[in-house]
Amino acid sequence: MKRSRWTAADTAVSRLPSAVRTLRILFAGPASAFGTTVVVVFLLLAVFGSFVTPYGDTQQISSEAREPPSAKHLFGTDRLGRDVFSRVIVGARDILSLAGVGSLVAVALGTLIGLFSAYRGGWLDEILFRFFDSILALPSLLIALLLLGTVGPSRESVLLVIVIVYVPIVARVVRSVVLATKPKAFIESARTRGESLAYILFREILPSVLPTLAVEAALRFSYAIFLVASLGFLGVGVQPPSPDWGLMVKENRDYGALTPWALYFPVAAISLVVIGVNLMADGIKRVLSDER
Amino acid sequence: MTRDTSKMSSPVLKISDLTVSYRADERWLDAVRDFSLTIRAGETYGLVGESGSGKSTLVLAIMRYLARNASVRQGSIALNGLDLLALRTDEMRRVWRDQLRLVPQNSLSALNPSLRIGPQVAETLAPSLDAREKQSRVIELLRMVRLADPARVANSYPHQLSGGMTQRVLIALALSGEPSLLLLDEPTTNLDVTTEAAILDLLKDLMRERNTAALYVSHSLGVVAQICNRVAVLYAGELVEDASVAALFASPLHPYTQGLLDSVPRIGQHKRAAPLCSIAGQIPPLDALPTGCVFAPRCAFATDFTHEVRPALESLDDARRVRCHRWRELKPNVPSSVVPRQSSVVNDETPVTALVLNVSNLQKSFDVDRSLLDVLRGRQTRKLRAVDGVTFEIQRGETLGIVGESGSGKTTLARCIVGLTERDDGQLTLLDIPLAPRVEQRTREVLRHLQMVFQNPDEALNPYLSVGEILRRPLQTLASCTRAEADARVPQLLASVRLDPAYAARTPPQLSGGEKQRVAIARAFASHPDLLLFDEATSGLDVSVQASILNLLNELQAQSQSAALFISHDLAVVGFLSDVIAVMYLGRVMELGRTSDIFNPPHHPYTEALLASVPTIDVQQPRERIRLAGDLPSPVDVPTGCPFHTRCPRFLGDVCVNVEPPWRVDANGHAIYCHIPLDELRRAQKEKTREVFETSRVSQ
Q1: Which of the 8 DSSP states describes residue B688?
Q2: How far apart are CA A105 and CA A117, in angstroms?
Q3: For a disulfide at B179, which of A197, B84, B101, B651, Cβ 3.0-4.6 Å?
Q4: Which residues of B touch A5 (CB under 8 A)?
């Protein structure tokens, strides 16, 4: 009794299939293998990108402006003479870290709220989720614009926006699983043993939520990438001269005929990552259903 | 008693050497093997087997409803000489319309919820009829299945009808085309006993009138004994025995049949007399079938030879068939002599009386259709009275059985006692400690003394936790063990429910239904509670597994001297385990008494009807026939006076409608909630039994 009576982490890990098996199943289908590869490559680029880029991301070489793709500039240069390849790679770091941290915090917070509120039930749950419903009724971009208009554009405010927009979604998904699990006899049995709220939430209920949550987290990640890029494009997200993909699309949109490469390579990067994450999410779903 | 039709009439259905297989992981798994059966006109053939025996596969194969990954790999199915397996789909459609009909198990999912009953029945009629002819034929069919108000039923949606009524509609649907063969797939399994008895009567009469051949699939031997002429026993996909009902129930030849018959608790059989016989082990999975006799791994008479060589199906002179190497040697061992009469676990000493649980005037009602608006307006909504003033006590070491049909409030009662449902009113004391309404308000000490085993073993155990952790928790939270002490006790707990210590590392999805329930029982006993609640703890299990679980409960309870509250819809099961029985109807106790008193007159009229409805495997025993009219009244509008007066076969008149009956208590403490005095009830019920005895003797 003196020892810690439960550890949520060890449940999560012990119930999820071993890493080797997960990878084997993820790479079993061509689609999820492709998605997983894309995500892994981009994550590596985000971490080690600055070591492989031939030029600095804000370095302007005015003599080489508006050059089409070549051996020297793989993706060409934009009208200010910046190397597009370097900017796309360094841009991965910004967008993936913002989207990653944002969706992670949103998933964690949403899970906590969903678990607690759905298990407790009653008027608190009723009010909270009616409020969440009203947030969900608005397009997420609209909420983002409203919030950023209030707090001003910065990395931190983009992070905040992701969390605020996605917490209700995650909480609702978690809540639905909790509501389905709560009346089951194993939870009632735990109540007749006088188990603590924490044990019931994290040890008895959380494992049932994890499969759904893993897929939901991957989806949130891909939507967060989208959101960061959209905000950059609208000019209320990451500010210049950062090599944000959305921002790059915005900056080069008017010069599509002149330097199409500077426009389409960031676009391609956004699509590729989002598709990759989605395909990987399908793979994760399969791993978890395989496990059951 | 049974009509001997086998000699005169021609075969309607002839199945020869049928093998049906499922394709899984690049190989064939044979779900039904070398199955042969002939059903003649007017014959009702029972097909009995536990879950996994291949009954459903067989029905699907006859109907040609097999899934894509299944196929008939060998043999033939002929209906009136027509080879069903060779027919094209359009030809098959004609067979479905004119000759072959199925009554499915789940009546609610078999009917389209968005269509009224009338059009659904009309759909199966010949397209040549015009609308008015169809209409009148629909009414005629609904009247034929004894639905009280056919026009209203035809105009209703399925959800507006009770389970018994929808089942009748399905029978009407099946009989609309005057089929020559009717397949009945567990048509009464989801029904209450009194409803089931009425449906079985109906089926019996309809079959006799029409001379229809029928295959009646059931896991219940009692039901088959009631309605069938012949029985085929299926085990792990093989026909192990085939005989007339009278012969099979009087002298089963195959050890599996013997085991099945012995596993079923009879009405009046009690744990203090002898434990139930059960069949060890479980049905083999299709991918690991034994090479020899399929039953050998569970058979008490198995030898090396039977393990290696597959027995052939032997035909005996009196149209019996049996698949066993040793039936000749076993034949003298008729089932009753197998039952060990002496080696009883419980001795018959009267237990030291010490009050464990006292329930006094317990009340619980639920709001019906209460919307947020009603709450805000403070409007009173209609109440569903689930438990209405229940009072009883349980002594140490004693088992109180609660029996009642669905809607009787027995589960709500258990949940109120354990605190999962908050009671409205009434006092509960456990060992003289008052119990708080909600489980969260109770102290550890109280929780330790009161544990519950839940109905559905699949939901009772968390699929994500190991068996070891599941058993460790009550020790840690309730028995104040440290983690290490708890871990050390887990193997003992597993051993106490006859499971290998290695099971600690498994998770519930890796266990069978019976094994899960054993773990759930071990968990409940872990904290040495003084009172255990069992809510339909064996209802989802096959009979052979149920028998071993009942024996186990009996044994554990005798060792721990704990009291128990055992809830079931099955009167025989309750009767086997209980010392005292309470019969519930619409939230009230109608009768309360020692088990032996409950099974002997005087009975409450409701108990009398229940006893008469239970399908029994004693085919020779004459039975009085009492059938309750109509359905259980809605618990929202409980009838005035005596709640049972709307269906009571011994209805007296206005006094039953207007006045609440008194409790009539005899010297033994046997209490009956009825207007009829005990002596009168006893006299009437004894006469009734004698009457039945005499008429049956005349008919033989």
Answers
A1: H
A2: 18
A3: B101
A4: 476
Q: What is the pTM of this model?
A: 0.84
* CA distance linking residue B44 with residue B182, whole number of Å: 9
The three state secondary structure string of B56-113 is HHHHHHHHCCCCCCEEEEEEEEEECCEEHHHCCHHHHHHHHHHCEEEECCCHHHHCCC
List the alpha helices (DSSP H) in B541-626. Answer: 543-560, 571-577, 595-598, 605-613
User: Cα distance from B674 to chain A (closest Cα, Å)?
Assistant: 37
| pLDDT on residue B304 | 87
β-strands B44-48, B230-235: how paired? parallel
Cross-chain residue pair B439–A207, CB shorter than 8 Å = no
Q: Which residues of chain A have pLDDT under 70?
A: 1-18, 290-292
Q: Where are the beta strands (DSSP E) in B173-273?
A: 181-185, 213-218, 230-235, 238-244
d(CA A291, CA B349): 52
* Cβ pair A190:B473 closer than 8 A: yes
Using CB atoms, pick whichever of B420, B464, B478 lies closest to residue A193: B478
Phi, psi torsion values for B494, nearest 5 degrees: -60, -40
Contacts of A200 in chain B (CB under 8 A): none
B333: left (phi over 0), alpha (psi -120 to 50) or beta: beta
Question: What pLDDT was estimated at residue B391?
Answer: 93
Q: Sign of dihedral through CA atoms B160, B165, B168, B172?
A: negative
Q: Per the structure block, which two tokens stand in for A89? A: 């790679």
Using CB atoms, pick whichever of A1, A186, A190 lies closest to residue B476: A1
| Consecutive 10-residue averages of pLDDT for chain B (700 residues) | 52 94 87 93 91 90 91 93 91 90 84 92 85 91 88 90 88 88 89 87 89 91 90 94 91 90 86 84 85 89 87 86 87 45 44 81 83 69 85 92 89 93 92 92 92 90 93 92 92 92 91 91 93 90 88 90 92 92 94 92 91 80 73 82 91 91 90 93 79 47
pLDDT of residue B341: 36
Residue among B454, B465, B476 whose CB faces A185 most closely: B454
Contacts 24+ apart (CB under 8 A), B629-633: B630/B148, B631/B162, B631/B164, B631/B165, B631/B195, B632/B162, B632/B192, B632/B405, B632/B406, B632/B407, B632/B586, B633/B586
Q: Are A188 and B454 a contacting pair at CB < 8 A?
A: yes
For the record, the structure tokens of A107 come out as 């998933």
Q: Which residues of A touch B527 (CB under 8 A)?
A: 193
Q: What is the pLDDT of residues A16-71, one digit of tens each?
A: 456 777 777 778 788 888 988 998 888 888 888 778 777 777 777 777 777 778 77
**Per-residue model confidence (pLDDT) at position B678:** 92
Q: What does each C-alpha distance from B158 to A189, B137, B635 come to in angstroms?
A: 35, 19, 20
Q: How far apart are the first and last CA of chain A?
A: 32
The pLDDT score that the predictor gives to residue A170 is 96
Residue B531 forms beta bridges with which residues? B450, B563
Give the count of alpha carbons within 13 A of A274, CB side only: 15
Mutation site, A130, A192, A195, A203, interface B, largest B CB count within 10 A? A192
Whole-angstrom distance, CA of residue A263 vs CA of residue A243 = 12
Q: A1 and B473: CB-CB below 8 Å? A: no
Structure tokens at B667: 């010297």
Instruction: Please report which residue ranges of chain A form alpha helices under DSSP H.
Output: 8-15, 19-26, 30-52, 84-120, 122-137, 140-151, 155-181, 185-192, 197-198, 206-234, 245-253, 260-291
Rounded Cα–Cα distance for residues B671 and B691 (Å): 26
Count chain A–chain B contacts defined by CB atoms under 8 A.
62
Tokens 């891909």 — which residue?
A222
The count of other CB atoms within 10 Å of the CB of residue B426 is: 17
CB contact under 8 A, A191 and B462: no
Which own/partner contact pairs does A149-152 have at CB distance under 8 Å and 24+ positions apart?
A: A149/A236
